[in-house]
Design brief:
Largest sheet: 7 strands, mixed
Structural class: alpha+beta
Shape: globular
Helix content: 25-40%
Oligomer: single chain
Low-confidence stretches: none
Amino acid sequence: MTPTKISNVVIVGGGTSGWITAALLVKVLGRVINITLVESDEIGTIGVGEATIPPIVQLNNALGISEKTFLAHTKGTFKLGIEFNDWGQLGDSYMHAFGGIGKNLPFCDFHHLWLQSKQQGGNSDFWDFSLNYQAAMAGKFGPSQKIASTNIQGLEYAYHFDAGLYAGLLSEFSQGLGVKRLEGKVTEVVVNQNNGDVSHLCLANGEHLYGDLFIDCTGLKALLIEQTLNTGFEDYSHWLPCDRAVAVPCEKVEPIVPYTRSTAHSCGWQWRIPLQHRTGNGLVYSSKYLSDEAAKAQLLNSLDGKPLGEPKIIAFKTGRRRKQWHRNVVAIGLSNGFFEPLESTNIHLIQTAATRLIKFFPHFGIKEAEVSEFNRQAQVEAEQMRDFIILHYKVNQKVDSPFWQACQRMEIPHTLAQKIALFAQSGKVFREQDELFTEIAWQQVMLGQNLVPADIHPIATMLSPLQLSELMENLKTLVDHNVAGIVSHSDFLAQIAH
């Protein structure tokens, strides 16, 4: 019996996950598959993530959406990193800045040189050598591939934007390339009793929607992947104990800074995301330690602008589906799992899942080997992100909060324990192939939260004190000089808007 050609793809649910998936699929495979997206105006979306990480730039470039168009449609701003306040001890502040820091030597990362200079009496801060950090703190932005007259990386950036407006932009884009949008509410998911695959969807208007491959973008509801196929869920909440978020936008505050802010509180943390027209705010917390009403009050009392609505409570459980692709259903977005937005990974996971699906897209019939490898890669990606987010909680040093002290004591995945031990003993970080977060990202969180290595790489001791001092001074001067020549973030946004 000849396998059926995979021709008809049905995406269930719109929002950011549905329309990113639709846009990528139609851009790459639109000539060989038919894509239908069904969504209901009655069903709201969470609008995951208003903050992103640098690969979002590649996504827009791949789709052919210009930065100017994107920023205008989404009220977007630029993001150079995430500032973490009070995460180590109260009063601490550091940034996970994108891009490079200092200049590495062969076989020896720059932070070893910086640590050696500190041992010799140097008083520089690690982030003195980060172009992204210094530009962010100065409220400046301007794209640059390299620092002038050097091979040192220029500003690396992502965006803040209105996720609902982005979904609208991608909806228009996708439909323009041939995606069929159906307005409708799914009332039943019908399974083929012979093979266990999803056969078709029943809509409220009586229509039946058939497909060869279904993509579940129904959010935390997980209508197809979990409610219908019972795929199973791997719970991460024993490592990531926050299970609630309360969110509310407020009026924008000038100047609009080019970075996200994350501030630790007694039972979790608060985000601040500046857009052109408003500021996004939210408090992520553990319901074991803080009530919903207390969380609402805490968030409202800490806003730096007038709230633009009622705070919205979102209940969640961190973790992932045991299989992102099961039978003829692929879960993308919150239907597959949830990571709290600490490192702005949720939109990125939509992007990588849709990209992975294109790479493994079935031709004649769904092959077990393709599904198995797709799921293996999804698991590795999720576990690497999981470890990086757990790191922030584990290496805190707070002494006055039961929540944070429980995080200090908790058992962690052996992969993370090994990474922490390696850095604590030797200052070394090694990145797995294709791992999202770079060595510099890990270094910044560990150093920023006061995890100081007991030793450094011997190469860092080969420079004389004078050579090392001159190197540090020259690098710092180079960064300072370049930041001085960058325009303000607000001025750059004004320029690109015209």
